[in-house]
TrEMBL record:
<dbReference type="InterPro" id="IPR013750">
    <property type="entry name" value="GHMP_kinase_C_dom"/>
</dbReference>
<dbReference type="InterPro" id="IPR020568">
    <property type="entry name" value="Ribosomal_Su5_D2-typ_SF"/>
</dbReference>
<dbReference type="InterPro" id="IPR053034">
    <property type="entry name" value="Glucuronokinase-like"/>
</dbReference>
<keyword id="KW-0418">Kinase</keyword>
<keyword id="KW-0067">ATP-binding</keyword>
<keyword id="KW-0547">Nucleotide-binding</keyword>
<dbReference type="GO" id="GO:0047940">
    <property type="term" value="F:glucuronokinase activity"/>
</dbReference>
<dbReference type="GO" id="GO:0005524">
    <property type="term" value="F:ATP binding"/>
</dbReference>
<feature type="domain" description="GHMP kinase N-terminal">
    <location>
        <begin position="91"/>
        <end position="171"/>
    </location>
</feature>
<dbReference type="Pfam" id="PF08544">
    <property type="entry name" value="GHMP_kinases_C"/>
</dbReference>
<feature type="domain" description="GHMP kinase C-terminal">
    <location>
        <begin position="246"/>
        <end position="320"/>
    </location>
</feature>
<dbReference type="InterPro" id="IPR036554">
    <property type="entry name" value="GHMP_kinase_C_sf"/>
</dbReference>
<dbReference type="Pfam" id="PF00288">
    <property type="entry name" value="GHMP_kinases_N"/>
</dbReference>
<keyword id="KW-0808">Transferase</keyword>
<dbReference type="InterPro" id="IPR006204">
    <property type="entry name" value="GHMP_kinase_N_dom"/>
</dbReference>
<protein>
    <submittedName>
        <fullName>Glucuronokinase</fullName>
        <ecNumber>2.7.1.43</ecNumber>
    </submittedName>
</protein>
Amino acid sequence: MIIETRAYARAGLLGNPSDGFFGKTISISVRNFGTSISLYESPELHIEPQPQDGSTFKSIYHLRDSVSMLGYNGGIPLIKAGIKKFGEYCEGAGIRLPNRNFTVRYRSTIPRQVGMSGSSAIVVALMRALMQFYKVEIPLELLPQLVMTAETEELGITAGLQDRVIQCYEGCVYMDFDQELIAQRGYGQYDRLDPALLPKIYVAYNTQLSKVSGKVHSDVRARFDRGDADVISTLGQIAQLAAEAKKALQEGRPDDLHELMNENFNLRTKIYTISETNQQLIRAARACGASSKFAGSGGTIIGTYRDDEMLNRLFVELKKYNARVIRPFIV
């Protein structure tokens, strides 16, 4: 029997980037793009490499473009790290795994290097497959932490809980990463929100992946750790926007998210340096009358729009900046 599991792209609706600083966020899963894992029993444990895991290229330029778009290591290190962490979790929980091996392979349609969390989606889908294969149940609230440690502890990837929470829970989720709560039990407060409460939302991402780093280089973490008053205050204001958005949605005021999302990005610019490429996307979307902010660390923006006429304007205007506009499919 072949086990098939999936995990989807994600977009930060409000509150990011406060999630790595014990803040609050709202995120949505974007089912337009996903990663699938296929896993089946075999005599030995085998990870099937994909094209991005190979070391054979047509030319030096093919290698350059492959590394720019897919990174140096592809998905195999993520698969290895996830399997290792799964085994360690089971051992620590006193779960004895049967002597069964498997072959695993992955496929992904999540755009790379634009902040839609393609890497963590691989690990989330893998964990789901391993749980099915070994008939192990990992509590949902603990799963994001396990996924994150596979990336941070094993591979040295800088990562926060927000992406893993929304990919594990799916739909639309409000997250409160209260520091005391996380220190006490290892996870925050995660509340599902009905996606039907949301206003009309678009997502736009840069299609020239090789020109988008997907990484934000800044000293915000160091300043936060030093107790910098401006950074702490700004991140606190960003987190509060998520709380205000949750209340607005629950009270039937979805249109309030337009200004809240714009303010989210405006606050971000006070402590982060934003590249001109990303600034162009933000400005072009707002010129159409839509709201706009980063959906992650850069390369993808998200916002609200009024009607189909405005959405069509977004399609046309953002294409001028090599951006593709989609309406996120949220369940």
